[in-house]
């Protein structure tokens, strides 16, 4: 059973982005880029499925600029077997990415595709669900536990009210939440090994997918800044201010 | 132009998030219809009919909508999408689950988590954990939108919309609910609470979280929240998490206790009206957004605070 994991290259989660002064976007020049943290959890889960003898091969795929090769190498250092880069300098939006992944899945025929639930740059939380819809597959989003057995996935999901567990026949889509696993650190030997693993590069045109953006960003602005307030001396001072100044209790 | 709002409900009653989505729909402008997909959901539909500005409530009542599986709900929405320029759902875990499927099946983009409506095709949404606000324009014929509930007031009651039964779609049988473990609480719901008492790693363990925060929350009639660190460490269940990828809240008063204030946490609560931070580290980033900061040992001052309010 093949497992496919789409991974995205994003601004590292520790970087506080700056909005460009001309309002056209955020400044990502010379900023540290990393694998989207939810995708890292997805890669880890897939690799664990392989280590448990459930998956036969873990394929990682990324859509974006040439620099995504690094992201794919990172995924292969965690334990993925090979990578596919769909190289494009275009603004790839979730629907386009879902279609690109569909084209790859049609060729590779994975039984499980594990996405990160959202990318921490555009915070869209769409691609996995869109891919599942395009395939007509079931989905289990925001997963905190995944069990694959007997041609079925049993997935516990983090929902607003608590947890729910779904069962679905494969092939299926899983999207990861934070507590699914803790991704391992790639060791130096594995990083070296990853450099020798196969990485294929293709173009959206090769897959026959129209990636034209549907949403146009008119402007990007800084949100209203919250001013730091005052330090209070003690609990009595705090309670007095909440009652008399802020009038919230 | 007509707008279809997909109701969030638990079959018995309408969830508050639906009311914020209706307000967003009203800002877009057009006749507002609400779709209630459920099982034995007549009461939820009747509640939707009372919302101001709602012209019609469409109800698809069938056993296979009881658990709100994304596959069945999305197929139903798509089957009923004709004639609507906008399909709107609250950006809850449920809305986030099915809405992108709807968009993909209609071959349109989704505009996620909007906090503002500029015009019928232009919306404002946070990106990068709310560190930037993007204004985006959709070129698609149908706009599929999820609404960040804190971005819009809840619509008032006062409507009397017609309730119309619509045909259920087939049960696609793709996913089956095995079990649900929902947190039971007498406290207000986190996303609808006026006051939130929230705890972080500084509390040390789940027992401390309980013994220190619960009495304070009880006194204030507050909901309880937590930072990711507290959830990851197992102090409290996942549904307590406030932040970029957890719940987005904007209460009148947010009391952050033992929370350092990572940007991912701030993303979930910085629109609160008043923020109080209690932390022993004067350099904690939470103080940069707090209206009132108390640099102190939480184990000492939280019981004092509970006694004083």
TrEMBL record, chain A:
<protein>
    <recommendedName>
        <fullName>Electron transfer flavoprotein subunit beta</fullName>
    </recommendedName>
</protein>
<dbReference type="GO" id="GO:0046395">
    <property type="term" value="P:carboxylic acid catabolic process"/>
</dbReference>
<dbReference type="InterPro" id="IPR014729">
    <property type="entry name" value="Rossmann-like_a/b/a_fold"/>
</dbReference>
<dbReference type="InterPro" id="IPR012255">
    <property type="entry name" value="ETF_b"/>
</dbReference>
<comment type="similarity">
    <text>Belongs to the ETF beta-subunit/FixA family.</text>
</comment>
<dbReference type="Pfam" id="PF01012">
    <property type="entry name" value="ETF"/>
</dbReference>
<dbReference type="InterPro" id="IPR014730">
    <property type="entry name" value="ETF_a/b_N"/>
</dbReference>
<keyword id="KW-0813">Transport</keyword>
<comment type="subunit">
    <text>Heterodimer of an alpha and a beta subunit.</text>
</comment>
<dbReference type="InterPro" id="IPR033948">
    <property type="entry name" value="ETF_beta_N"/>
</dbReference>
<comment type="function">
    <text>The electron transfer flavoprotein serves as a specific electron acceptor for other dehydrogenases. It transfers the electrons to the main respiratory chain via ETF-ubiquinone oxidoreductase (ETF dehydrogenase).</text>
</comment>
<keyword id="KW-0249">Electron transport</keyword>
<dbReference type="InterPro" id="IPR000049">
    <property type="entry name" value="ET-Flavoprotein_bsu_CS"/>
</dbReference>
<feature type="domain" description="Electron transfer flavoprotein alpha/beta-subunit N-terminal">
    <location>
        <begin position="23"/>
        <end position="211"/>
    </location>
</feature>
<dbReference type="GO" id="GO:0009055">
    <property type="term" value="F:electron transfer activity"/>
</dbReference>
């Amino acid at each position: 059973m093949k497992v496919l994991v789409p991974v995205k290259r994003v601004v590292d989660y520790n970087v506080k982005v700056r909005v460009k002064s001309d309002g056209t976007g955020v400044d990502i020049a010379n900023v540290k880029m990393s694998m989207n943290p939810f995708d890292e959890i997805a890669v880890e889960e897939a690799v664990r499925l392989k280590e448990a003898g459930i998956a036969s091969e873990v394929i990682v795929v990324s859509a974006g600029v040439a620099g995504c090769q690094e992201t794919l190498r990172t995924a292969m250092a965690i334990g993925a077997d090979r990578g596919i880069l769909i190289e494009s300098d275009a603004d790839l939006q979730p629907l386009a990415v879902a279609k690109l992944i569909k084209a790859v899945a049609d060729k590779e025929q994975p039984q499980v595709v594990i996405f990160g639930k959202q990318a921490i740059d555009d915070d869209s939380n769409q691609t996995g669900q869109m891919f599942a819809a395009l395939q007509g597959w079931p989905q289990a989003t925001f997963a905190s536990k995944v069990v694959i057995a007997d041609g079925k996935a049993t997935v516990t999901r983090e929902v607003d009210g608590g947890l729910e567990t779904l069962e679905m026949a494969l092939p299926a889509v899983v999207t990861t939440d934070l507590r699914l696993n803790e991704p391992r650190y790639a060791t130096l030997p594995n990083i070296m090994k990853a450099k020798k693993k196969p990485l294929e590069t293709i173009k959206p045109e090769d897959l026959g997918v129209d990636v034209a953006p549907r949403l146009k960003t008119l402007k990007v602005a800084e949100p209203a800044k919250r001013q730091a307030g005052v330090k209070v001396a003690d609990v009595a001072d705090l309670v007095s201010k909440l009652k008399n100044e802020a009038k919230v209790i | 132009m007509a707008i279809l709002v997909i109701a969030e409900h638990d079959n018995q009653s309408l969830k508050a998030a639906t009311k914020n989505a209706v307000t967003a729909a009203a800002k877009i402008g057009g006749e507002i219809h609400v779709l209630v997909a459920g099982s034995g959901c007549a009461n939820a539909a009747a509640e939707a009919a009372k919302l101001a500005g709602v012209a019609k409530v469409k109800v698809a009542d069938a056993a296979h909508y009881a658990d709100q599986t994304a596959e069945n709900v999305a197929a139903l929405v798509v089957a009923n999408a004709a004639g609507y320029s906008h399909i709107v759902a609250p950006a809850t875990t449920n809305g986030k689950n099915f809405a992108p499927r709807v968009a993909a099946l209609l071959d349109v983009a989704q505009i996620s988590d909007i906090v503002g409506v500029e015009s019928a095709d232009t919306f404002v949404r946070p990106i990068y954990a709310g560190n930037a606000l993007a204004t985006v324009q959709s070129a698609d014929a149908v706009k599929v939108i999820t609404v960040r509930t804190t971005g819009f007031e809840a619509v008032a009651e006062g409507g009397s919309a017609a309730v119309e039964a619509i045909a259920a779609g087939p049960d696609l049988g793709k996913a089956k609910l095995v079990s649900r473990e929902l947190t039971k609480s007498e406290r207000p719901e986190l996303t609808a609470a006026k006051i939130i008492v929230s705890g972080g790693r500084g509390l040390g363990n789940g027992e401390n979280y309980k013994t220190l925060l619960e009495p304070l929350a009880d006194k204030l009639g507050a909901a309880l929240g937590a930072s990711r660190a507290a959830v990851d460490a197992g102090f409290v269940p996942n549904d307590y998490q406030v932040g970029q990828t957890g719940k987005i809240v904007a209460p009148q008063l947010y009391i952050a206790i033992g929370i350092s204030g990572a940007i991912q946490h701030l993303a979930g609560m910085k629109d609160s009206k008043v923020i109080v931070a209690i932390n022993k580290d004067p350099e904690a980033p939470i103080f940069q957004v707090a209206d009132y900061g108390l640099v102190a040992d939480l184990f000492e001052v939280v019981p004092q605070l509970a006694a004083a309010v």
